[in-house]
Design brief:
The protein is mainly α. It has 17 helices and no strands.
């Protein structure tokens, strides 16, 4: 069968690709507002530097490892697209109506955002040089294989039947598990469990959340790879889940803390968006409501795990992205509906589909989490042994912005540390 380029689908995916790329600067602002003012520039840079580093390795080998023809066992692609060889502007992506080069770029923006998410777990204490080594290597040996497992027909999880529409396994769980690994490699910040470490700029947090939400429509609806009814349904599901995630988190704050917070609104929306990412193309609008609500409520409780577990996941990548990704991935097994999956598609348990799909989703979660955690931990340890992954105690205490970048975000140096009293471990993100 011969496929030709569809101008409407191509135009939509061009817009969606730009929207997803905007998510990384949005994440930088989101994370930048959450850290103390002495580390905001470093936090911004950790996201921004991911864009060129991942772009280079993606064009050289990452895309081929992820989406090239299977090299055997459904584990990784071959080198047929090494350096984008064999792809020109007229090449059409197989089984689609879009240019291959556009698909390369669309998937590149996913890879960039995923590694940028990991940076939130090691805020305020990581060497920038070590991060610059970690980013491209991680993209090749962690992200690309997982993308191949899940999003190519010959990938072993795809053949097994695990579903992930837009990145619950590939993006959220992979980044969350890797974030936990790096947090353990570096150890907790000085003052963890004793100092409040509150966000220095809540308007930044809300602005970043708004940019992320905007980009998420391209992230999810763009994954339809066409301008059609499915894209429209996914777009609505994304909106609904973000809204219910926010409401769920704020209700928990009101009951638990007595006051809803702006930080809670931002983090709840992100939790709902995280959870709907894997399920947006498989659940109906009612299902999206349940997915978002479940994520907002569960993540609002689970961000406190780090205090009980003793690991310093600085900006709660584990509590929001890993947990939210698990929630959304598993709920496919309960809420998948043939209104979205098609006449011959899967149905979740609540629609008479039994436990089979839930079991497949659970296998996907365990496999991706275990692989991402183990490889990221090993990679972090190697880098730590070679050049050290953590800044000195003196640089961490004085502020890593000036120590690593010879700049400060504000003329006065350190400002905006406090936002009123809060019991340690309570409130959004446990700050």
């Amino acid at each position: 069968m011969t496929f030709t380029i569809d101008p409407a689908a191509t135009a939509w995916l061009l817009a969606a690709t730009a929207m997803v790329l905007l998510m990384t600067p949005g994440l930088a602002i989101f994370y930048g507002g959450m850290v103390r003012s002495s580390g905001v520039l470093n936090m911004l840079m950790m996201s921004f530097i991911s864009i060129p580093l991942v772009t280079v390795v993606w064009l050289l080998a990452g895309y081929s490892f992820a989406f090239g023809e299977d090299a055997g066992g459904g584990l990784i692609g071959n080198v047929e697209f090494f350096g984008l060889s064999g792809i020109d502007p007229s090449t059409v992506r197989e089984n689609t109506a879009i240019p291959e080069l556009l698909y390369v770029t669309f998937q590149l923006t996913f890879a960039i955002l995923t590694i940028a998410l990991v940076s939130g777990a090691i805020a305020d204490r990581a060497k920038f040089a070590a991060w610059m080594i970690f980013v491209p290597v991680w993209a090749l040996i962690v992200y690309a294989p997982i993308a191949h497992w899940v999003w190519t027909p010959d990938g072993w999880l795809a053949r097994f039947g695990a579903l992930d529409y837009a990145g619950g396994l590939v993006v959220e769980i992979a980044s969350g598990a890797s974030a936990l690994a790096l947090a353990l490699v570096l150890g907790p910040r000085i003052g963890f469990k004793t100092d409040a470490m509150r966000p220095h700029n809540l308007p930044f947090v809300l602005l970043g959340a708004g940019l992320l939400w905007f980009g998420w429509f391209g992230f999810n609806a763009g994954s339809a790879l066409s301008a059609n009814g499915t894209a429209a349904a996914v777009f609505l599901n994304t909106l609904v889940a973000g809204c219910l995630g926010m409401l769920g988190w704020l209700v928990v704050e009101q009951v638990r803390d007595g006051k809803p917070t702006t930080f809670g609104a931002a983090s709840g929306a992100v939790a709902g968006l995280v959870a709907i990412t894997p399920s947006c193309g498989y659940v109906n609008t009612f299902g999206a409501l349940l997915v978002g609500l479940a994520a907002g409520v569960l993540c609002s409780f689970e961000v406190g795990w780090k205090f009980k577990g003793g690991y310093d996941d600085s900006l709660d990548v584990v509590g929001v992205h890993f947990v939210g990704g698990v929630v959304g991935t598993l709920l496919i097994g309960l809420l998948a509906n043939r209104a979205m999956t098609g006449e011959d598609g899967v149905e979740g348990l609540l629609y008479g589909g039994g436990l089979t799909q839930l079991g497949k989703q659970a296998v996907g979660v365990i496999a991706v989490a275990a692989f991402a955690f183990c490889v990221s931990f090993a990679l972090g340890k190697v880098i730590d042994r070679l050049i050290g992954f953590r800044v000195s105690k003196e640089d961490e205490v004085s502020g890593i912005d000036f120590a690593l970048h010879a700049e400060t975000a504000y003329a006065e140096g350190v400002s905006g540390h406090g936002h009123g009293p809060r019991k340690l471990g309570e409130g959004p993100f446990g700050h």
